[in-house]
Amino acid sequence: WDETHFGKMGSYYINRTFFFDVHPPLGKMLIGLAGYLSGYDGTFPFQKPGDRYEQHNYMGMRGFCAFLGSCLVPFAYLTVLELSNSLPAALLTAFILIFDTGCITLSQYILLDPILMFFLMGAVLSMVKCNSCADRPFSASWWFWLSLTGVNLAGAMGVKFVGLFVVLLVGLNTVYELWDLLGNLSLSLVMFGKHLLARVLCLILLPLALYVAVFAVHFAVLNKSGPGDGFFSSAFQSQLIGNNLHNVSIPE
């Protein structure tokens, strides 16, 4: 059922047709982009679950989701290896995911779940890697992993609001780090301020900027009238090509 739902939204992006959905747009936008780049023309109707795709090229969208789902295995392996320094533990984690029926099933269809899990586990891996660079703060690797954590937080929030849980996890980890630094008497207040500023920049401002940018792209791409028009004001509808109010002068 969900493939019918999100595949249709991928088609909306390809056709630039405006729609409304309860989830943020990044996941559907990426599905639409994968379909567009792989030659899908956005004409399959997605009327009900189980309809045959026939000549429609759907493999790019499924393949994209499957690729992101397959990335969960190395992400889990690297995260556990970093936390435990145990190769057997990391390998066991990877094999558990490789042979997990739920993970395989979720990854083989056009769904938001593999995209969401990619960003969730990416954020956790980046956070753990950044923690391992704590002995060399402000180095290139430290900045890289801290910034990548922020990018993954924006990705997780941009796919589904349940991404807030990984934001909470990273937030608690950051509070713990800053509290530990504040208690370090050998660290000057100026240096502590730099640590605080770096985290505000990479873990708050960067994710917020990327999250807003996703919506900017969403509204720029979807410029034609569609099933989501009625959720918005008359002034907004007047900007949509094909809407009854298109180019009509709307008073404030």
From TrEMBL:
> What's the encoding gene here?
Pomt2
ArnT-like N-terminal domain location: 1-223
Among the GO biological process terms of this entry, one is: protein O-linked glycosylation
Spans through the membrane: 59-80, 87-109, 143-176, 196-222
The pathway is: Protein modification; protein glycosylation
Q: What's the protein's topology in the membrane? A: Multi-pass membrane protein
- Molecular function per GO: mannosyltransferase activity
Q: Does the keyword Acetylation apply?
A: no
The name this protein carries in UniProt is Protein O-mannosyl-transferase 2
Q: Output a single Gene Ontology CC term carried by this record.
A: endomembrane system
Record-stated family: Belongs to the glycosyltransferase 39 family.
Subcellular localization: Endomembrane system
Q: Which UniProt keywords apply?
A: Glycosyltransferase, Membrane, Transferase, Transmembrane, Transmembrane helix
Q: Which organism is it from?
A: Thinocorus orbignyianus
Where would you say this protein principally sits, based on its record? membrane
